[in-house]
UniProtKB/TrEMBL annotation, chain A:
It is a multi-pass membrane protein. Its main location: membrane. Keywords: Cell membrane, Membrane, Transmembrane, Transmembrane helix. It is found in: Cell membrane. The keyword Iron does not apply. InterPro entries: ABC_transp_permease. This is ABC transporter permease. Coiled coil: none annotated. The chain crosses the membrane at residues 21-41, 53-72, 79-99, 105-126, 133-157, 177-200, 233-252, 285-305. CDD domains: TM_PBP1_transp_AraH_like. The lineage of its organism: Bacteria, Pseudomonadati, Pseudomonadota, Alphaproteobacteria, Rhodobacterales. It comes from Ruegeria haliotis.
UniProtKB/TrEMBL annotation, chain B:
Residues 5-241, 247-497 form the ABC transporter domain. It comes from Ruegeria haliotis. This is Sugar ABC transporter ATP-binding protein. It comes from the Bacteria. Keywords: ATP-binding, Cell membrane, Membrane, Nucleotide-binding, Repeat, Sugar transport, Translocase, Transport.
Amino acid sequence: MITATDIEKKKPLAGLSESGAYQKLLAFASLIALLIGFSIASPNFMQTSNMIAILQATSVNGVLAVAATLVIITGGIDLSVGTLMTFCAVIAGVALTYLGMPLLLGVAAAIAAGALCGLCSGTFVAKMKIPPFIATLGMMLILKGLSLVISGTRPIYFNDTPGFDQISRGSLIGEVFPALPIPNGVLILFLVALAASYILGRTVLGRYTFALGSNEEAVRLSGVNTDAWKMRIYALAGGICGIGGILIASRLNSAQPALGLGYELEAIAAVVIGGTSLSGGRGTILGTLIGALIMAVLTNGLRVLSVAQEWQTVVTGAIIILAVYADMARRKKAG
Amino acid sequence: MSKLVDMTGIEKYFPGVHALKSVQFDLVPGEVHALMGENGAGKSTLMKILSGIYQRDGGTLRIEGQEVSPKTPREAQDLGVGIIHQELSLMNDLNVAQNIFIGREPRKSFGRLDEAALNAQTAGIFASMNLNLDPRAPVGSLTIAKQQMVEIAKALSYRSKVLVMDEPTAALNDAEIAELFVIIRRLKAEGVGIVYISHKMDELKQIADRVTVMRDGEYVGTVDAADTPITRIIAMMVGREVNEEPLDVPDLGDAEVSLEVSGLSRGKEIQDVSFSVQRGEILGFAGLMGAGRTEVARAIFGADPRDSGEIRVHGQNVSVKSPKDAVRAGIGYLSEDRKHFGLATGMNVRDNIALASMDLFLSKGGVLNDAGMAQAAQSYIKQLGIRTPSDTQEVRLLSGGNQQKVVIAKWLLRDCDILIFDEPTRGIDVGAKSEIYRLLEELAGQGKTIIVISSELPEIMRLSHRIAVMCEGRLTGILPGGKNTTQEDIMHLATQRAAAMQVTGTLQ
């Protein structure tokens, strides 16, 4: 008779959320500690307006980090999320301001452009077998260049599209609960995260995202068309970057073609702080959200304490190294 | 009786290799048919053709009388052929049920997963196997034996009529093997045909009904497992003639013992291994894959940690904690995987030869003495007969045999007088092989101490003054070299499993 006394009790949902749980907890505790620390250090920090500013600042990076999480769980990396965001913002500008499309159509065009670019990256990686780092590095530069070319290196303003700035800056929640004027950008981040979480945990696409990162060859030998699924994941990530593009364009009420470089690294940092393994197979959206919040709280808190911008960057770098070191140390102990 | 599988005249070519030469194999329902042969005999290739991973270049494959040509593993699965690979192909980050149904998850609309159905179906398969395992347990947390059970459950979930098991017991201990055999017997009773690839002779007698032996990509014969003595099966496996010049075993007399290893142990992989080698001696290490020969070499070299054991070089106890310590004591290790561990293939011959001895060529201020390196490299190119247009040729452009010589030069320059060669002729063509053999003999003649690890018996017999044989981490015997030792003697020791192996930590 075979017995399996070595089985751990598992939570009902998927069992995928388990692996990064420790670091997620650690990340969450760090977030709380940061919030408490900054509140003590500065009475201005805990103001509702400041909290909302933090959330607003999280929204764009958070959405990009969700996209990066999907790709990273497959064992890949996406360096193009930042410039893809900008590219999509420019596409929205062209569609709405230059072509005069209706609002919804313009937004849809931007998101579709994002998905299409993601599909290109996915094709480079899956079909042409270019390492994800290189494929998306190339994509990053291509998109940066295309954004400048299409826009003629000038910002495109959305003054002719009433309501566009409300996508990010308006507050549906504030209309219902005037005490909580949480901007729509935050609401959108929340919805994107919820959807991504659902896809990862409950759908075939999500299952293959983890499976690819865990052992791609085994998935292939199980008769799964790994290339096609990988391309779909990159396309989905691209579409989410498109939403990020809409958010940033709405917040600035303009598409700034020179923007975007550096966003990919902030997104990846949020993913890593949130406990997603860069070697693939493990990760959660909730962790990524906490990671993005930690970065926003840090930046905001240090600014409230009047710490110079230069030092904020230094601290962020140190936090990333600490977060990953904590995870490594734990994993080594667990053996 | 109708045959489940009938393969006849199977041919397979790989670039430069005729891997399968008109091979035949058949399987009837409810039998365990063992497939035997030395490493490289073509067993795995044949089974990969059956399971759709490779396509055959000739011959016919019939499954239940129908001629078929599965193009992908999926097509083979649909035909009822499941394979459990030597290296488990599971996704450690997913749980048991998710692994079993990867690629055919029960779905609801819009690509949503039906997790409840997934777990229920998995539980159903486990129940039919009489296996008590939680479908939601993460695979990474299971023991190797349990993971093997998951692989079997996965294969069965395709309603497999044919189950190919490639060395399923390689990583299992006795208790776990017993569990596996219980499952196999149950499957057999249900009419599943099982192809069982293994090197372990005693297992055959326990589990197999028929045995087919392959050698060098050719079919040798099929015999009844119960009635055929093991010696006969071994003779079928090694049957080839060794048409090499006879070995001249020198009388070393009381030459100094240059390397003495005692009580070397690490977990299950190395169990209390002790031996010594004299100056000028070539000691061969024979054994089947996974016997622990490479592990022993790496432990001596300090590349892997060891639990216990002493290493004495020229009578002095040396503390080897890292390869650096070993190199300082004069031990060089030439890995079987030259491209990964032996050579910087993108660099040139000169740099590779100097790689382990850079300190010899450092002048004041840390500048490299390139002229000195060139001189050293050229002298070894001449001495070892490395065929290269110049010492600045990139190593990756050399042939396998010449690459191996570059690695040898590297260690000679480092003044290593104890050289451990792990599969020295892997990937080297036949002509270059004898050249490497002569080189090893010359080195021994010059008073170097040589250890050769090889999976090719003819190579071991051609080179070794003495032959150490390992099986499952233990040194099962040391045989004299030369004519009096036969391949059968070596195979006996190489398949001699411990009578009562300790059952170690199966259930954590």
